[in-house]
Amino acid sequence: MVFSFISTLCILFAISQIKSLKVEHIKDTTAIGMPTTFYYDLSDSLQVSQISYYEVHGCVGGMASYDEAQLVIDIPNNVVWAQNKGYVFAEISICEDSFNSSCVIYTNYIWNSGLNIIVYSNITFPWSQNNGNDVLYLRFIAVQAPTDYTFQLTYGQYSSNFYGSYDYDAFGNSYGCGNSCKLLSQFAKPSTVVNVANYDTQYYTVQFCPNNNFPSTNWSANINIGATVSKPKSAFEIFACSADDTVTNCKSTHNDAENLSATSILSLQITNSQKSPLVNGFIIGVYGIGGEFDSMNEGSLTITVPNS
Question: Is the pTM of this model over 0.85?
Fold first, then answer.
């Protein structure tokens, strides 16, 4: 009986050690950056010929490894952008005090000498710090009718760039906003497909750009992962750390939040706090521990940081 009891204790101790040590076998500590998104907190409304100005501060951290951006404008009462209803012209400038031909780098319209004006609800364009200009200024003007709209500006990788260039002053003036620009807020909503081998960890980072409006102090990041249809036996453990930590120190045994259940669907929430301030962003570790024959796990990872 004594021998059996001691043997049982030894087995339980060994299992606990395996559980606590298995994530230590990290082959690659290179973290993959996940991009941030910029937006204006509220829907905006313009009367015909009225102009609104905005500014957004980009940064290398928020850009992650991307050098392109997409501007998407939504009009709730004209979702198909019929040009006999209300819609907006948009221009993007690198100058705070001017929207003239030397400052405007992208537009959402092609003027075509005014004979065949084409307006688009979204454009994609290069934004690699704009050769040193990490601040962009945007302006919108309502056309045809009073118009409600919302918009988002997101870093990413797109199949092609598509935008208009300045060839006509559709706004009737080249004035900038000076100190009257509305500062954009930021949040994160990236998603990606994770491929990680059993007993390996893949890291991801989310960083925020300074000088933009930021979520209030009481906010949480929601992290979700689920096995793909093609690899249903994939299983994961996930954990997260403040970006003030290092990737090599962020492990299942040293983190700010964790869900170490080995399953195909997982959720995790990491909360901003005095102990682990997330203003600079956070690190996510995805650990593979599934039953696929090739020992590779594939999952869809989604990260959401709401605006408050």
Answer: no
Element (H, E) at 16: helix 2-21
Q: CA 265 to CA 297: how far, in whole Å?
A: 12
- In 3D space, the residue among 70, 54, 82 whose CA is nearest the CA of residue 143 turns out to be 82
Q: What is the pLDDT of residues 142-155, one digit of tens each?
A: 998 999 999 999 98
Q: What is residue 8's predicted lDDT score, i.e. its pLDDT?
A: 42
Q: What radius of gyration, in Å, describes the C-alpha atoms of the chain?
A: 24
What pLDDT band is residue 17 in, cutting at 50, 70 and 90? very low
Task: Give Cβ neighbours of residue 254 (< 8 Å, ≥ 6 apart).
Answer: 241
Q: With residue 44 as reference, give the H or E element that holds it.
A: strand 44-46
SS3 per-residue string spanning 58-93: CCHHHHCCCCEEEEEEECCCCCCCCCCCCEEEEEEE
**pLDDT attached to residue 20:** 38
How confident is the model at residue 102, as a pLDDT?
92
Would you tell me how many other CB atoms lie within 10 Å of the CB of residue 88? 26
Residue matched to tokens 């970006």: 243
CA 244, chain centre distance (Å): 19
Domains along the chain with CATH numbers:
23-34+187-304 (2.60.120.380), 41-183 (2.60.120)
Chain centroid offset of residue 258 CA: 21
Helix (H) or strand (E) holding 17: helix 2-21
What SS3 class is residue 20?
Answer: helix
Specify whether the CB–CB gap between 125 and 161 falls below 8 A: yes
DSSP-assigned letter for residue 34: E
55 contacts 137 by C-beta, under 8 angstroms? yes
pLDDT at 277: 62
